[in-house]
Amino acid sequence: MKLKYFLSFSAFILFVVNSVNAQQVAGKYAKEGYKLVWSDEFEKDGMPDAKNWTYEKGFVRNEELQWYQPENAFCKSGLLIIEARKEQKPNPLFEEGSSNWRKKSKNIEYTSACLITKGLQSFQYGRFEMRGRIDISAGLWPAFWTLGDNGNWPANGEIDIMEYYRGKLLANIASLGANKKPKWFSNTKSTEALGGKKWVAKFHVWRMDWDSEAISLYVDDLLLNKTPMAQLKNDDSTGINPFMQKHYILLDLAMGGLNGGDLNDTKFPNRMEVDYVRVYQK
């Protein structure tokens, strides 16, 4: 009973601190002309708010190891938890002798979740923020990113506000390049240079400032990537700029695949924790 009381009191203190911090940030951003237009603070325990989030399901991209399923995402004590689990279950896509990466394995070995606001919440321009904590164990690939509402990837545009794998944070922007391949504008920062395990043990704020002139990506106010909008047009006959449209938000914890690397001795279950996601606009 005492433990339950302590946990409830701790959650209340966290709520109060977050409320004060939110007011301070809102005041600071108001001076820059920004107003909060949407947020999810994940204050209610249970499943994430269905008005804001839906889910990707199954094996989705990049030959990643995880099977995405909604039950790996839940809210607790003011945080969204995206949990990567090592659990075996039959692969419903399995086909004997198939070379397709989604179908060739008889069993699913890992599960996780990818939450998306597609069809529910999307925005053009503004300040996008996520406060969260990630794990940098081998093979993990957490991300906070956006995709354009219209067009097929990469012609719809991709912005990786927070992405991590193999010892580095990535701040990426992609549009359509030559031969229908993605054209990347990318910068990285070693987590070791930021402070290693001590740095990663703390929560950090990843931010995008996006307007008609440029896209700027930050972590804790450290600028990682600033790319002029003029450079981001698709290299095809349309010449469309995929960042002059609304984008929706994705949060996920992937594993392995083309970039994540081997899991080695990574322990499970493993987590990506999100305190809030907010969008401000002028």
From TrEMBL:
InterPro entries in the cross-refs: Beta-glucanase-like (IPR000757), ConA-like_dom_sf (IPR013320), Glycosyl_Hydrlase_16 (IPR050546)
Signal sequence segment: 1-22
Annotated Pfam families: Glyco_hydro_16 (PF00722)
Keyword set includes Transmembrane helix: no
Key words, A-Z: Hydrolase, Signal
UniProt-recorded Gene Ontology molecular function terms: hydrolase activity
All copies of domain GH16, residue ranges: 7-282
Family: Belongs to the glycosyl hydrolase 16 family.
Protein name: Glycoside hydrolase family 16 protein
